[in-house]
């Protein structure tokens, strides 16, 4: 799992819960066949918990579409997620778009169900969270050779292909000139 910026994910989750008037919510980062709770609101002890990708979460992830539902008492796949006690009265799950994030909110305050507007809002927050998770995993960037290895490669190039060495050296000078 990539190193995550939990502060950013927590703020996104808090804002998503407030914007949808949910009682609680959590942001799940998909890692193989399960997900890990990366941020949570009014869900004590949920962060770090592993969650199966079944039920509404599995459907939203597989379909790539948000899912709003009122779980039946027999739907135990939503029980206990994010520290939720029992089955939520209403549930809304939105995938981030690339299959790395699910944002889930439960129990719309003052209403029995989430609205179409709530679906749109949560989907927007999920897309932003997806970008934040993707940026976190890409921060390390590609591996690069050590300075010693680069120096050795340049020395070997100077010995074997002087013309190519001059091209590479010129490009390096241009790049380094802007950082001096």
Task: Spell out the blueprint of helices and strands.
Elements: H1 6-19, E1 22-31, E2 34-41, E3 50-52, H2 55-63, E4 67-69, E5 91-95, E6 101-108, H3 116-138, H4 147-160, H5 162-177
Antiparallel strand pairs: 1-2, 1-6, 2-3, 4-5, 5-6
Helix pairs in contact: 1-3, 4-5
Structure description:
The protein is α+β, with helices and mostly antiparallel strands and 180 residues long. Helices cover 42% and strands 21% of the residues. The chain has helices at 6-19, 55-63, 116-138, 147-160, 162-177, and strands spanning 22-31, 34-41, 50-52, 67-69, 91-95, 101-108. It has a six-stranded antiparallel sheet with strand order 3-2-1-6-5-4, sandwiched between helices. Strand 1 (22-31) and strand 2 (34-41) form a beta hairpin. The model has no long low-confidence stretch (mean pLDDT 80).
Task: Briefly characterize the structure.
With 180 residues, the chain is an alpha+beta fold.
Mean of pLDDT: 80
Strand order of the largest sheet: 3-2-1-6-5-4
Q: Assign a percent range to the helix content.
A: 40-55%
Instruction: Let me know the number of strands.
Output: 6
Unreliable spans: none
- Principal-axes geometry comes out as elongated
Distance between the termini: 36 Å
Q: Can you write the helix and strand succession as a string?
A: HEEEHEEEHHH
Strand proportion, as a percent range, falls in 15-25%
Radius of gyration: 23 Å
Tally of helical segments: 5
- Overall SS class: alpha+beta
- Major sheet summary line: 6 strands, antiparallel
């Amino acid at each position: 799992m990539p190193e995550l910026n939990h502060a950013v994910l927590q703020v996104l989750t808090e804002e998503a819960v407030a914007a949808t008037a949910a009682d609680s919510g959590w942001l799940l980062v998909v890692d193989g066949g399960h997900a890990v709770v990366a941020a949570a609101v009014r869900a004590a002890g949920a962060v770090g918990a592993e969650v199966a990708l079944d039920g509404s979460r599995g459907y939203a992830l597989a379909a790539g579409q948000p899912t709003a539902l009122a779980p039946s008492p027999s739907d135990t796949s939503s029980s206990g997620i994010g520290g939720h006690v029992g089955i939520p009265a209403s549930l809304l799950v939105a995938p981030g778009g690339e299959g790395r994030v699910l944002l889930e909110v439960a129990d719309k305050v003052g209403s029995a169900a989430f609205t179409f507007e709530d679906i749109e809002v949560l989907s927007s927050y999920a897309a932003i969270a997806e970008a934040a998770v993707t940026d976190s995993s890409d921060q390390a960037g590609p591996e690069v050779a050590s300075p010693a290895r680069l120096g050795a490669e340049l020395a070997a190039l100077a010995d074997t292909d002087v013309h190519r060495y001059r091209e590479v050296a010129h490009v390096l000078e241009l790049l380094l000139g802007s950082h001096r």
